[in-house]
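Subject: design request, 677 residues
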């Protein structure tokens, strides 16, 4: 069914639309803007007059003209003496010209009005005072030399700034000099943001996870509890409106965050109707899909017209584009990344249109993709990437692609667009990256790929604290994955704790094999306690690794190539049991904290990890052994200017103490070189 007819699509009151379209991005945008044009909007917002101090980052609604000239008089441009230029002809150090102050010259300071009848200034350093008001001029001046003529900078009535100009601090200064005290600017487009969902909890002081089970009946429309500070399972902290409002404000709009609206057709209808009456754009967050409690499309269809319901993009497919009373209503998905992406694609252009400004283009550069990315052929995909410069190469590493992975947007340096009809991008292929970070930030980022450790998080914070231009960018792929990344030139260093089953030595044999031919420095970071993380009180009574084979115990493992997984396999072999017998051996997590969360949430009875992670999540800990964790650094990077601040921190006693305080760490050898290979 064509989207233009969606507004008249028959539906039962209170029931959502049960279809989604797959409209290509460009077509969806064209349909939306065409429908808005037919409905008489969106038009540019009206002008309003504001004082200059309040005008920064506003957009002019008309041309700005100079009221006075600047300077508005002939002004001395130097300290010295105002003279008639003709009186200084022939002056030199050998044949100075003598002038009488008052009659033939007058003292002036920079910025003073030129005395009547004088047309030049002799600089003070070219004047010799003789006494009795007599001076000698050592150098001649031409007419109007060292004088700022009236209107030299600005002439009264000239155009200062055109309509549609984004005002900068320098613009405010120019207007003030030209006698402008207030300026007409576009009213900021008013954008209402409506979070929807009976399960939403408004953040506030004292918000803590509840201990009860999810009260599923309380999430039904009309029966939900009012938001409280009890964060029971099934409740979701309402954070998207903070993100969306901030984006709107960055783009020059005025955002109104409305309270969460329950999943109730009539309540949502009343909220949208009221929001449309008082705003230029309405954004409804969540409820845009086709689930039983997704009412956005139905409500928009009843109040006005649904233009598009479903755009062939990823993330962000379940999108509603509609028009109500001539105003745009955009239903963005509930997942944070989808919401932010679709807001930028569809709401930012509307704000710019209302302000009369172009949509700013991001800087784009080429980078080499470090991992293969598969993509569905029917959708245009926006892949978040971490960008790092290793040597002369710019590398783009894909981040987690889930629409709910908020931290992937926090950590992203750029976005790679995979066009509709493509199955993905191959590893090693050059891709175009739309930058979210500055090139300077990328050039000053230390790229760490490998095993996860909390000490690296402490190091990242300390590095940026002491050296604000530096950042530590970590990607957790396991110890072996880190060495492979180094072999391909994709990182500056890797964290590793790979145990050689034959020698009992850490890392060295693996480095020799994987990084053969490269000069490498093994720098010791910590010794750390590895053990079983279990729930408080150790309810299953686990005493060691052998207990993991019990049928009543569920386990969560680390990914292949992770040092912790290698350790588990080694100890199982040493103890004489097959690790494949462990219930959950193939279930994996990518960090120690992720394992700890699985145990803390009851998704697993136990996981192998470090004591610091267990303490961070309030878990009990059954020690297994003490292991060595090193930083593997190619010599070319070890000696580079980029890494020197980080290496200095690793040898600071205060940093060692901060890591030790996490628990389970021996920092006595931190910063020492273990081997040079």
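Subject: RE: design request

Done. Sequence follows.
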């Amino acid at each position: 069914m064509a989207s233009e007819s969606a507004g008249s699509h028959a539906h039962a009151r209170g029931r959502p639309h049960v279809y989604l379209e797959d409209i290509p991005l460009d077509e969806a945008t064209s349909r939306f803007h065409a429908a808005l044009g037919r409905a008489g909007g969106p038009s540019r917002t009206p002008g309003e007059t504001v004082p200059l101090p309040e005008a920064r980052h506003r957009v002019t609604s008309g041309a700005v003209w100079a009221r006075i000239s600047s300077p508005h008089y002939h002004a001395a441009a130097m300290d010295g003496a105002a003279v008639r230029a003709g009186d200084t002809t022939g002056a030199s150090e050998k044949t100075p010209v003598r002038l009488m102050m008052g009659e033939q010259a007058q003292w002036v300071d920079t910025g003073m009005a030129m005395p009547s009848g004088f047309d030049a200034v002799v600089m003070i350093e070219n004047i010799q005072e003789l006494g009795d008001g007599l001076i000698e001029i050592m150098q001649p001046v031409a007419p109007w030399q060292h004088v700022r003529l009236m209107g030299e900078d600005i002439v009264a009535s000239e155009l200062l700034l055109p309509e549609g100009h984004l005002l900068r601090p320098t613009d405010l200064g120019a207007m003030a000099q030209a006698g402008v005290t207030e300026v007409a600017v576009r009213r900021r487009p008013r954008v209402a943001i409506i979070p929807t969902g009976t399960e939403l909890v408004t953040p506030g002081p004292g918000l803590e996870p509840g201990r009860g089970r999810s009260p599923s009946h309380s999430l039904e429309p009309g029966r939900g509890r009012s938001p409280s500070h009890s964060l029971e399972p099934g409740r979701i902290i309402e954070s998207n409106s903070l993100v969306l409002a901030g984006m709107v404000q960055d783009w020059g709009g005025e955002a109104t965050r409305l309270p969460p609206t329950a999943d109730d057709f009539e309540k949502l209808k009343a909220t949208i109707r009221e929001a449309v009456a008082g705003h230029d754009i309405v954004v409804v967050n969540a409820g845009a899909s086709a689930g039983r409690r997704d009412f956005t499309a139905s409500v928009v269809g009843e109040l006005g017209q649904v233009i598009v319901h479903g755009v062939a993009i990823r993330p962000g497919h379940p999108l509603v584009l509609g028009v109500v009373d001539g105003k745009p209503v955009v239903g963005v998905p509930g997942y944070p990344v989808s919401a932010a992406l679709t807001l930028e694609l569809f709401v930012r252009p509307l704000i710019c249109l209302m302000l009369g400004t172009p949509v700013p283009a991001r800087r784009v550069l080429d980078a080499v993709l470090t991992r293969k990315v598969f993509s569905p052929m029917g959708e245009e995909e926006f892949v978040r990437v971490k960008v790092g410069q290793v040597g002369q190469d710019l590398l783009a590493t894909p981040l987690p692609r889930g629409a709910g992975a908020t931290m992937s947007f926090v950590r992203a340096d750029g976005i790679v667009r995979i066009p509709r009809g493509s199955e993905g991008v191959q590893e090693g292929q050059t891709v175009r990256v739309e930058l979210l970070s500055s090139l300077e930030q990328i050039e000053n980022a230390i790229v760490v790929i490998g095993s996860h450790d909390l000490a690296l998080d402490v190091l990242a914070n300390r590095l940026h604290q002491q050296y604000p231009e530096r950042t530590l960018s970590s990607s957790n792929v396991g110890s072996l994955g880190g060495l492979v990344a180094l072999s391909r030139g994709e990182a500056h260093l890797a964290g590793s704790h790979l145990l050689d089953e034959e020698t009992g030595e850490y890392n060295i044999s693996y480095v020799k094999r994987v990084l053969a031919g490269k000069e490498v420095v093994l720098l010791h970071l910590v010794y750390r306690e590895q053990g079983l993380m279990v729930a408080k009180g150790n309810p299953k009574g686990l005493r060691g690794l052998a207990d993991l084979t019990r049928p009543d115990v569920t386990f969560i493992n680390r990914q292949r190539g992770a040092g912790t997984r290698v350790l588990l396999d080694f100890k199982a072999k040493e103890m004489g049991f097959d690790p494949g017998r462990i219930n959950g051996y193939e279930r994996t997590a990518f960090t120690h904290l992720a394992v700890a969360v699985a145990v803390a949430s009851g998704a697993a009875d136990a996981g192998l990890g470090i004591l610091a992670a267990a303490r961070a999540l309030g878990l009990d800990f059954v020690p297994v052994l003490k292991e060595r964790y090193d930083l593997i650094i190619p010599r070319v990077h070890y000696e580079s200017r980029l890494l020197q601040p980080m290496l200095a921190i690793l040898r600071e006693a205060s940093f060692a103490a901060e890591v030790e305080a996490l628990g389970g760490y021996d920092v006595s050898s931190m910063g020492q070189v273990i081997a040079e290979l």
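Confidence is low (pLDDT under 50) at residues 1-18, 211-228.
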